[in-house]
């Protein structure tokens, strides 16, 4: 009887329970790490979106300065094109100020759309060169903006 106990106590290896516990712990840790990584990816995409919008705003301001203060006239809302030109001087195009049109990060991203607006109705698309609206969306709260749909106007992110 003593011989049986001594053989069992000197056996090498892990029991099935020990292996299952270790696998469960690794699974829990992997879930936590992947969740944090996904959140960081969303924040990075949102930061890129905000950077893109600010770049487009600056380019449109420079375009308007070269175009006698007039922005592009686009209605209904559409995606900007590098060939969009000034109404008063066809030689001035968006590509002079914005070498490439930024694209929205996916997943969760819709294209950035642009339309012209008036000072009287700044939140409504209208055939005008007074102002503009750029629509974009965020996946989560970023830089003081809530998640969801937003608009950008000259010198404003709403």
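^ Assign residues to that structure.
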């Amino acid at each position: 009887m003593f011989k049986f106990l001594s053989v069992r106590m000197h056996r090498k290896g892990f029991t099935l329970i020990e292996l299952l516990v270790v696998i469960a712990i690794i699974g829990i840790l992997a879930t936590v790490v992947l969740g944090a990584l996904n959140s960081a990816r969303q924040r990075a995409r949102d930061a890129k979106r905000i950077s893109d919008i600010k770049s487009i705003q600056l380019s449109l301001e420079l375009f308007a300065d070269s175009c006698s203060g007039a922005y592009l006239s686009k209605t209904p809302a559409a995606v900007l094109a590098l060939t969009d030109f000034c109404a008063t001087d066809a030689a001035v195009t968006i590509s002079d100020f914005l070498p490439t049109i930024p694209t929205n990060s996916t997943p969760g991203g819709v294209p950035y759309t642009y339309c012209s607006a008036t000072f009287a109705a700044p939140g409504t698309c209208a055939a005008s060169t007074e102002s503009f609206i750029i629509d974009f969306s965020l996946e989560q709260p970023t830089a003081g903006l809530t998640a969801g749909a937003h608009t950008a106007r000259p010198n404003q992110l709403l």
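Residues 14-157 form one domain.
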